[in-house]
């Protein structure tokens, strides 16, 4: 048994076929219980039982039909009913109500289960057919702007769970403990909910979830966009109806998710019209129309509550959002803004009608049903696991071997052992960085007062051959994840924000503190200490504020609210600063820390060599002037010395072939050029699609490209060596996402000649359609007697506001200037400054004047 994708599995979870679960061959009496469905009324203690008794004979028969209820933990019957019935040939529906006195509710911290048993026996026949199911008394709905479990509002905090993702066979775990471990890890990490995606759960998983006390939003295989065909509607109906019938007795299931990221079209419209039919199968749960609402039709509500037969205008916005990492200041503001339209991905447009609000404020509640970031898939460790199990030739093992081979080749090509002693150290660091980014991402979302629930796509385990898991493909906990996830799950939590994370001394920062309270704090006054602490434990702010938790007045306050806001002029020494919030008594909160960096113009590297600005960039010239750096804005008509050139912006005044040909000849005679902006080497603006570096002065026939590497859900790790370009800065591994927040770039150089000096780059090992790439962001190479440095980091964009950008530019210029004092060299024999690539040589000649 197991999935079969050929030649090897590739970035998918829906293409699962064949038998994926147990198969039972049942020998039953002529009259048997075909289906048993129980709905427990949480208020009254009544259990409504609906049974389908199937008579396989050709005539009516008299039989005894009995139902009983007991605690699932014990055998003692609490209540039972029995009657004699005439059972017609075929299906016979029997409806019975039994009452459980002093019933116990199914709660997250006390998931009490009852067992309902049905029995049928024909008169005068010793054969008995019996079937048992478990159920629980609970109610879950969305009402007045919040989700509510058994009448109390609850903040959903969940994880995605892609089932049928086990090593070797995919669809069946090679070790049954893997299945149990997933559920235990969810509970341990503080989640109260699970969104099961890319199919439905295995029944034995749901049994365990019922017992552990987790809430489930269950999908099915037909939830994703299917190919349009005459059988489209029938296929979808069969998919959802089969899952509802099979799993509707599990009290842990509180929502059926009908679609996922499906645009408006035939399937979406069919699902909208299917609510009445689905309500015949189950009246007791929320029907969630379309996760992510990629249809963008605000006229249709996102859910239908238990008992409802319409798509309700609750105002709930169901959002999938993946802002780039690192999050910019603008991204963070949008993530926190309750009125934001979250333009990070396909989301529901703002309705044109007034709908329910979740507070007196003018915003609508948000269910963030997808967000999060990936890290590296640990190729070497996965391969060791396959070898240990004797399964190194399994399809997924072959896939990871292919990826590891590509990684090994780039490891040697870019000399990455200058960063990490061994490949294993890179993969471990990537996962530690992933844990930090997961927490930073959630910190921003959690501060949004409109947020009433979330399901993180940094799910419980690596799935889809993505590095998205809290645990790995082999269910090993990733470094840093336990701390991050437990912090995220705290019912009381601080969310702190600094509007800038890298500033010059004397800058004014804006500090904000949000308090997240999931109804865990009693009314009262809570003193809290707010601090800003700099290098050598210097204090720059230290005050006590009083946080007031109001008494209930009939109005529910948002889970998150701002409690502190202040500007701060930073006058302390350069270095790392911590912004802190701490309760002095009465509350045990998570979170409570943000960081930022302060730099100074004093102590910056001096630039002793005259700089020539090549290109139309007046702002760069103005910055050089403000820093008293000797420069000119044009090259001398005749080259009499080696020059230090910084190229930025577009070349103007001459044709590109002529200008770049002359520039290449100057480099070949010994000048050094820093291409500060990669767009300088293109014909037009960079759109993200790979494009040749058309005007790059190259020393080889290899044609490199400017490309985009993933920076959202899929994410490349930005790295830098300990190199003169990064002197005085943190380097020698993955870049610090705070220090370099505004510098890290998803624009990369792809396909450079292996002979270049790799200084910094980006490694994409998180999976996805790009699968694997190892690209560069700063690279140097020789051209004749001179030197070329390519840069795609966002240095130019941050000059004047970010000390790290200034230090990097100074370092780049000083590194490029090495040997600049030597005399001008002769042009290499046959050098004409034209591209070496045969592909571009003809075009170059054609465009020359």
Radius of gyration: 32 Å
Contiguous runs where pLDDT drops below 50 for at least 5 residues: 1-7, 346-360
**What is the strand tally?**
40
Biggest sheet, spatial arrangement of strands? 16-15-14-13-12-11-19-18-17
Mean pLDDT: 92
Strand content: 25-35%
Helical proportion? 10-25%
Describe the main β-sheet briefly: 9 strands, mixed
Structural class: alpha/beta
Task: Sum this structure up briefly.
With 849 residues, the chain is an alpha/beta fold. Mean pLDDT is 92; it is low at 1-7 and 346-360.
Write the layout of secondary structure elements.
Layout: E1 31-40, E2 46-55, E3 61-71, E4 77-87, E5 90-99, E6 114-122, E7 128-135, E8 140-143, E9 146-149, E10 152-154, E11 156-162, H1 176-188, E12 193-197, H2 203-212, E13 215-218, H3 232-247, E14 253-260, H4 266-272, H5 275-281, E15 286-291, E16 303-304, E17 317-320, H6 329-336, E18 366-370, H7 379-388, H8 395-413, H9 423-446, E19 451-456, H10 481-488, E20 492-498, E21 502-504, E22 508-517, E23 524-533, E24 539-549, E25 560-569, E26 575-583, E27 590-591, E28 593-599, E29 611-614, H11 618-626, E30 631-632, E31 644-647, H12 656-668, E32 672-675, E33 691-692, E34 705-708, E35 717-720, E36 733-734, E37 747-750, E38 757-764, E39 773-783, E40 786-791, H13 803-816, H14 838-847
Parallel strand pairs: 11-12, 11-19, 12-13, 13-14, 14-15, 17-18, 18-19, 20-27, 21-28, 29-30, 29-31, 31-32, 32-40
Antiparallel strand pairs: 1-2, 2-5, 3-4, 3-6, 6-7, 8-9, 9-10, 15-16, 20-22, 22-25, 23-24, 23-26, 26-28, 33-34, 34-37, 35-36, 35-38, 38-39, 39-40
């Amino acid at each position: 048994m197991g999935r079969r994708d050929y030649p090897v599995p590739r970035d998918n979870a829906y293409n699962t076929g064949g038998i994926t679960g147990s198969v039972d061959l049942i020998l039953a009496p002529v009259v048997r219980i075909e289906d048993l469905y129980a709905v427990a009324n949480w208020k009254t203690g009544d259990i409504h039982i609906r049974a389908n008794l199937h008579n396989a004979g050709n005539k009516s028969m008299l039989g005894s039909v009995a139902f009983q209820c007991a605690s699932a933990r014990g055998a003692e019957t609490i209540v039972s009913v029995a009657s004699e019935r005439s059972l017609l040939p075929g299906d016979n529906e029997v409806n019975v109500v039994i009452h459980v006195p002093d019933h116990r509710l199914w709660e997250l911290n006390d998931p009490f289960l009852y067992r309902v048993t049905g029995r049928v026996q024909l008169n005068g026949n010793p054969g008995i057919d019996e079937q048992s199911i478990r159920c629980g008394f609970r109610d879950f709905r969305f009402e007045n702007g919040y989700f509510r479990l058994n009448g109390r509002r609850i903040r959903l905090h969940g994880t995605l769970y892609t089932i049928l993702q086990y090593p070797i066979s995919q669809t069946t775990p090679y070790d049954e403990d893997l299945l149990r471990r997933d559920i235990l890890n969810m509970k341990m990490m503080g989640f109260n909910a699970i969104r099961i995606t890319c199919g439905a759960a295995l029944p034995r998983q749901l049994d365990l979830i019922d017992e552990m006390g987790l809430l489930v939003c269950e999908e099915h295989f037909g939830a994703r966009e299917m190919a349009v065909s005459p059988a489209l509607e029938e296929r979808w109906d069969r998919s959802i109806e089969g899952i509802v019938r099979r799993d509707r007795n599990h009290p842990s299931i509180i929502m059926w998710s009908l679609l996922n990221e499906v645009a408006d079209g035939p399937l979406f419209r069919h699902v909208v019209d299917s609510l009445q039919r689905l309500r015949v199968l189950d009246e007791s749960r929320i029907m969630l129309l379309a996760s992510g609402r990629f249809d963008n039709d605000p006229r249709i509500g996102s859910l239908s509550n238990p008992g409802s037969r319409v798509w309700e205008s609750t105002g709930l916005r169901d959002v999938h959002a993946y802002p780039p990492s690192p999050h910019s200041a603008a991204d963070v503001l949008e993530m926190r803004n309750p009125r934001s339209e979250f333009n990070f991905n396909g989301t529901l447009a703002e309705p044109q009608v007034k709908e329910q609000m979740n507070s007196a404020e003018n915003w609508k509640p948000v269910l963030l049903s997808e967000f999060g970031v990936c890290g590296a898939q640990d190729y070497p460790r996965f391969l060791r696991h396959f070898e240990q199990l004797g399964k190194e030739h399994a399809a997924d093992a072959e896939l990871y071997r292919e990826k590891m081979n590509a990684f090994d080749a780039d490891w040697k090509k870019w000399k990455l052992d200058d960063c990490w002693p061994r490949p294993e150290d890179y993969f471990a660091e990537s996962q530690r960085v992933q844990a930090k980014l997961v927490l930073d991402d959630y910190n921003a979302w959690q501060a949004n007062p409109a947020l009433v629930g979330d399901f993180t796509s940094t799910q419980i385990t690596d799935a889809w051959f993505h590095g998205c898991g809290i645990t790995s493909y082999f269910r090993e906990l990733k470094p840093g994840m336990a701390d991050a996830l437990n912090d995220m799950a705290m019912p009381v939590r601080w969310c702190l924000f600094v509007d800038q994370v890298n500033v010059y001394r004397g800058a004014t920062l804006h500090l904000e503190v949000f308090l997240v309270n999931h109804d865990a704090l009693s009314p009262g006054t809570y003193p809290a200490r707010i601090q800003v602490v700099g290098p050598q434990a210097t204090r720059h702010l230290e005050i006590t504020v009083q946080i007031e938790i109001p008494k209930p007045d009939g109005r529910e306050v948002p889970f998150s609210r701002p409690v502190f806001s202040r500007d701060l002029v930073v006058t302390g020494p350069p270095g790392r600063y911590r912004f802190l919030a701490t309760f002095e008594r009465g509350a045990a909160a998570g979170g409570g820390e943000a960081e930022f960096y302060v730099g100074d113009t004093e102590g910056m590297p001096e630039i002793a060599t005259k700089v020539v600005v090549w290109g139309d960039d007046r702002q760069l010239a103005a910055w050089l002037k403000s820093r008293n750096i000797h420069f000119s804005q044009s090259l001398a008509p005749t080259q009499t010395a080696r020059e230090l050139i910084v190229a930025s912006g577009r070349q103007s005044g001459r044709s590109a072939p002529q200008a770049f040909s002359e520039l290449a000849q100057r480099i070949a005679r010994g000048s050094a050029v820093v291409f500060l902006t990669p767009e300088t080497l293109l014909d037009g603006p960079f759109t993200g699609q790979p494009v040749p570096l058309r005007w790059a002065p190259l020393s080889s026939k290899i044609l490199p490209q400017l490309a985009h590497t993933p920076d959202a859900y899929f994410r490349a790790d930005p790295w830098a060596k300990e190199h003169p370009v990064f002197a005085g800065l943190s380097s020698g591994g993955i870049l610090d996402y705070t220090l370099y927040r505004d510098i890290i770039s998803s624009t990369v150089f792809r396909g450079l000649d292996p002979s270049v000096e790799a200084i910094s780059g980006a490694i994409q090992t998180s999976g996805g359609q790009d699968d694997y790439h190892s690209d560069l962001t700063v690279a140097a190479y020789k051209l004749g007697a001179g030197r070329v440095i390519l840069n795609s980091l966002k240095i130019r964009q941050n000059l004047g506001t970010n000390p790290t950008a200034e230090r990097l530019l100074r370092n780049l210029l000083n590194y490029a200037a090495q040997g600049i004092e030597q005399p001008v060299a002769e042009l290499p024999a046959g050098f004409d400054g034209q591209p070496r690539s045969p592909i571009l040589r003809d075009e170059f000649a054609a465009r020359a004047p």
